[in-house]
Amino acid sequence: MPAERRHRPNLLFLLADDHAGHVLGAEGDRLARTPNLDRLAREGVRFARHYCNSPVSTPSRQSFLTGQMPHSAGVTVLRTALEEGKPTLARPLRAAGYRTAVFGKMHFNRPAAPGLHGFDVVMTEDAVRKAWQAEVPPRSVPPEIRTKPPWRPFKDPARIWLNADKLPYPRYDEDMLGTYIARRAARFLEESKDTPFALWVSFHEPHSPFDFPVEDRDLFDPARFTPPRVGPEDAWQIPLIFRELTDQDKRGIIAAYYTSVAFLDRNIGVVLDKLRELALDRNTLVIYMADNGYCLGHHGRFEKHCSYEPAIRIPLIVSWPGRIRRGVVRDLTEAVDVAPTALDLLSLEPLPVQHGRSLRPYLEGGRPARRRDHIFSEYLENEEACVRTERFKLVFCSGRRERQDGYKTDNPTPGRWMRLYNLEEDPGEFHDVSRGHPEVVERLMGLMLERFRQTHPEARREPGGLSVPEALEFYLRPRDA
User: Fold this and answer.
1) What is the rounded distance in angstroms from the CA atom of residue 419 to the CA atom of residue 406?
2) How far apart are CA 120 and CA 128, in angstroms?
């Protein structure tokens, strides 16, 4: 094998499902048990104000995989499959001679098949679960240990499918799906140690029902958690399914979530330990990110399908010992910045459509010539989008689409609404100050419309003569094939 090919840097992309940016020891959360992620953060760069471009799994994942905004990638609602011919981050890596592989949850919404979206080895949801069930027979759990029932969201009461009783999955750690995914990834590293690789390892945790093994059932005491304040100003937007949750339920749900995060961190440690054991860490770019955040009782919600900070701010950690600096970046960044960053660092050509910006200057100890002055995120299932600057956040919604995600409120189609939050004075996002700052509303609506016009494939079809709110509503409609 030519030395140039053998020594080409590798890529390890670690993904979590619904990991909120604040639930991380490195973030200052004293209850979070994330030693492996904390170590990764110490060894690299943690982006402290990193945001997803959609607060739901499928649009977010296909957005940062393609480097395009969700509406451009063609995936804006949960069940849409990414078009097979779309450029992805994996394709140029494969073309450059990398062995590409993915293990775990990717929301491709297609059966696993070699070559899918540029991956040589594809063990996504259907394939990895089938292999796990065939290779890892469960050991019996003593009957005195309560375990969770099958997950039936929106059919069972919310306290059941959100695991308010903090019940473990009915398997031991050695037998869990997350553990299996970590071990398959470690095996891939063993098999690929002498060839360039680009490996995605995508865990199901900590997505509800917050799975964790039997051994972890007493890891957290629910009494240690205090549910976030819910005020009268929240009443209009709390989904009906959460209205009956008690404070005790909320504490249990939060404790279950933190336990699932701890289980996630342990399996990330399995992969990172194997990378170090094989002495591949100094020649491997490691990226850790979540697809979206999660509200843990914030504004009465236990999900992510909204524009509140816990739902859209996500962890991003980049590590490459000896090649990038260590530290924390507090400038605003977006998930679409990740693909350009990886290709830039690996000295590969950019994707044909690139809506993000390379973060390489931060990783080399500097700052880009032009920093982001705002971030943009969209949730088209609710015809909703937000723009957040250093100080303000504007949320705009058509209010005319009856959402199909299960999170209906008292008034499913309230008509057009917007909220402006002063995040410096009101970080919890309780008080709408739009009437007092019409000039800020106008500016941020203009930024939102500009982002759509610059990136939307139907921008040329925007009707003439529309007001700014009407133009935004033109773009907020889901158009997935």
Assistant:
1) 22
2) 15
CATH code of the domain made up of 3-363: 3.40.720.10
User: What's the pLDDT at 7?
Assistant: 76
- pLDDT average, residue stretch 98-107: 98
- Top CATH class of 375-476 equals alpha beta
Phi and psi based region of residue 415 (left: phi greater than 0; alpha: psi -120 to 50; beta: remaining): left
Q: Which two tokens stand for residue 151?
A: 């997950």
Nearest to 315 by CA among 22, 2, 13: 22
481 falls in which pLDDT band (50, 70, 90)? confident
- Report the Cα 178 to chain-centroid distance in Å: 17
Q: Tokens 């009101």 correspond to what residue?
A: 426
Closest by CA position to 264, among listed 204, 313, 221: 204
Q: What is the DSSP letter of 431?
A: -
What stretches of 48-176 show up as alpha helix (H) in DSSP?
Answer: 57-66, 70-73, 90-95, 125-135, 158-161
Residue span(s) of the chain under CATH 3.30.1120.10 come to 375-476
Task: Work out the percent of the chain whose per-residue pLDDT is above 90.
Answer: 98
Strand 392-397 versus strand 197-202 pairing type = unpaired
Residue 400 has pLDDT above 80, yes or no: yes
Choose among 91, 11, 66, 79: nearest CA to 287.
11
**Where do the CATH 3.40.720.10 domains begin and end in the chain?**
3-363
Q: How far is CA 20 from CA 32, 217, 395, in A?
A: 11, 21, 20
What's phi and psi for 308, nearest 5 deg? -65, 150
Query: pLDDT tens digit string along 23-47?
Result: 999 999 999 999 999 999 999 999 9
